[in-house]
Amino acid sequence: MKGLADKPSYIIELMEGGVTLEDIIDGHIYEQTLVEKNAFVVGDLGALMRQHVCWQSLVPHLQPYYPVKCNSSPVVIEVLASLGLGFVCANKAEVSLVLEHGVPPENIILSGVCKQLALIKHAAKNNIQQLVCENEAELSKISRLHPGAKLLLQLTTEAHAAETSMAFGSSLKSCRHLLEAAKELGIQVVGVTFHIPSSCQDLPQAYTHALSDARCVFDMGVELGFNMNILDIGGGFTGSEFQLKQVESAVRPLLDTYFPPLSGVQVLAQPGSFYVASAFNLAVNVIGKKVVTRHWDSLAQGEFLSSNAEFLYYMNEGVYGPFNLKLLGNSIAAPSVHKHALCAEEAVYPSSLWGPSLDQLDQVVERCLLPELTVGDWLLFSNMGASGLEECSCLSGSSQLPVYYTVSTSDWYEMLEAGVVLDSTMKNFDMVQYNA
Ligand SMILES: Cc1ncc(COP(=O)(O)O)c(C=O)c1O
């Protein structure tokens, strides 16, 4: 693959010998302490690699297509493209990013239920044929602008509709209608896509409904003469091995029943958070502190020692920056305190964490138990890779958050063994040895 023209290469710090991710974070905290104490992000490419190994070993029959909207850092795209993943793109910028990284158009799916005309034309021009479609208006746009498209019909699932609070995808009845309309317009339909979010409480039931509905759509498609050969079971993988096993055990028997290997149907999934969440850590600085006195009746016995003080800490980033998912109703897990190993007898206090805007919406963590902090302490938020860090940092009012990429030599060698060859595939990486 060629290097990206006009793009800087990305500096990747190599952790050699006994150097750990914590050492890398410590080093950058030290650098920041000498200057403005700005928040920063550390991305561990080894974590991407380990997730890929986990995916390949637990669900090798599910071909991973990474949804770029989950984290569109070019470094992430470069690694995942090198690992051979397919990509799901929702707009022109995402398509261009993925194509620039040498991903073949047949490994790209264009998602989105209502695509701008220019996007459909752009897909046709770049020979991207797999397009998601869920309504008739979309079908007629595609038939005019991209008659060679191969459609995946987006099937509704209750869990997805509940998460987005809107009708998402097409019902079984509407799918028949869409198939007939596609037939009339001379557009090919090749499969079905659906999504069950990780928030779903009853995975076996949700996958049973979705896969039996998908089978019905396949049967209707075959009846109308379509060559139905792609089933996309969407995302909804948190990143934990345990949850992936749970999904696998819900899905496996259903696939064996409805889409056995002999059917020749290619089964895809769209793991987003699974790949990127654990790879990114965010370090923020405590810039202010207040104590208020409250009575917490609801605290469990022993959780909180004697005082009823609550601490409010202000951090140099908030919901108008890297914690923007909070505004969309997601909760942010409590951070750890840098260089602070909590011991059993240490007092912890109810605390809330706020961004710097002094806006009442800018509450990042509503309540957590922390040892007493002082201004200047650093807090570490893990699992931040799927939080839109790369896009939102410019909203924070402060300048762009620095992102430092790192990989350990052992992970790097594992990557090479997995077939990722530095010289030929990662032209845009500049590997430097980490110096403490
Ligand atoms: C259609 C679709 N596919 C895949 C994903 C990625 O999901 P996850 O990050 O939970 O794997 C999403 C997330 O919203 C989605 O809406």
Automatic annotation (TrEMBL):
Obligatory cofactor(s): pyridoxal 5'-phosphate
Gene name for this UniProt entry: azin1b
Domain of life the protein comes from: Eukaryota
GO MF entry, a single one: ornithine decarboxylase activator activity
Function (record text): Catalyzes the first and rate-limiting step of polyamine biosynthesis that converts ornithine into putrescine, which is the precursor for the polyamines, spermidine and spermine. Polyamines are essential for cell proliferation and are implicated in cellular processes, ranging from DNA replication to apoptosis.
Secretion signal, residue range per the UniProt entry: none
Gene Ontology CC entries for this record: cytoplasm
SUPFAM superfamilies in UniProt: Alanine racemase C-terminal domain-like (SSF50621), PLP-binding barrel (SSF51419)
Domain Orn/DAP/Arg decarboxylase 2 N-terminal: 46-277
Keywords from the named record: Lyase, Polyamine biosynthesis, Pyridoxal phosphate
Family classification: Belongs to the Orn/Lys/Arg decarboxylase class-II family.
Organism: Sphaeramia orbicularis (orbiculate cardinalfish)
One Gene Ontology term from the biological process aspect of the record: negative regulation of protein catabolic process
Protein name: Antizyme inhibitor 1b
